[in-house]
Design a protein that fits this description.
- The protein is α/β, with parallel strands linked by helices.
- Helix content is 37%, strand content 21%.
- The protein contains nine helices and eight strands.
- Helix 3 runs parallel beside helix 4.
- The protein is globular.
- The relative contact order is 0.12.
């Protein structure tokens, strides 16, 4: 990357919620996970409700990259999470390109919530998308997140056209997505896509509830039970019977 172009990328700024230097569940291998501030969705089960609205600390992409490189000896990559990292598409693109230059692959942990026209360059710069599809049914996605799934699916279609690798993520929520008809619809959605390299079924839990209380926000899923290991195994077997290996 020419020096002038790298300098322009390094000067881009964005709002960072927090950082974790050793993440093991947000992409392949040990990863530095950078949580960006801001998200257009209002998911009922959000684990970081304090990352949704205003807040965070302003960093330059260059400074963040230098912070990440302190840990590079044990990292297999970096994941931009949130919030919704594509809500800051220019910052996400700059980070992904600077990290690529440093030989650290960058993944985007995203719901594809912003319009594709705003974030196509950031997607192109990333090595992998961890794409959180709320539900195959638009109405169910709307109930869960405050938005239907059209932009998420547009992002998935773009990855299919461009050959961008996707790990599709899906949260199993009792009474919403942990239902046979919802899983059937999701399996039918997943099957045609060649870009989906992995399907992750994530069991709903209540670990994020205290954050809602600390933020003074009403938490509507307080009485929903956490998903058991048996229920998760049932959902994975449901997918396996349809030829989809889910983890």
């Amino acid at each position: 990357m020419p020096g002038e172009a790298a300098a322009r990328l390094a000067d881009r700024t964005g709002l960072v919620h927090h950082m974790e230097s050793m993440g093991t569940v947000d992409g392949p291998g040990v990863r530095f996970v950078l949580f960006l501030q801001g998200c257009p969705l209002r998911c009922l089960y959000c684990h970081n409700p304090d990352a949704i609205g205003p807040g965070g600390t302003r960093w330059t992409a260059g400074a963040v990259t230098q912070e990440i490189l302190r840990y590079r000896s044990f990292l297999q990559g970096v994941t931009l999470s949130g919030g919704e990292p594509l809500a800051q598409p220019d910052f996400a693109e700059a980070l992904a390109l600077l990290l690529r230059e440093a030989d650290l692959p960058c993944a985007l942990d995203t719901a594809g919530a912003p319009h594709l026209n705003r974030c196509r360059a950031a997607i192109d710069a990333a090595a992998l998308l961890l794409l959180d599809v709320k539900a195959a049914d638009p109405a169910l996605a709307l109930r869960l997140s405050g938005a239907d799934n059209r932009r998420s699916l547009a992002t998935l279609d773009y990855c299919e056209r461009t050959g961008k690798a996707v790990w599709l993520r899906h949260v199993l929520v009792p009474g919403f997505t942990l239902e046979a008809d919802a899983l059937e619809a999701l399996a039918a959605l997943v099957l045609p896509y060649r870009c989906i390299a992995r399907v992750e079924l994530l069991p709903f839990h209540q670990l994020g509830a205290p954050k809602w209380d600390q933020a003074g926000l009403p938490y509507r899923l307080r009485d929903v039970p956490a998903v058991t290991q048996e229920e998760t195994a049932w959902a994975k077997e449901f997918f396996a019977r349809r030829g989809i290996c889910a983890v």
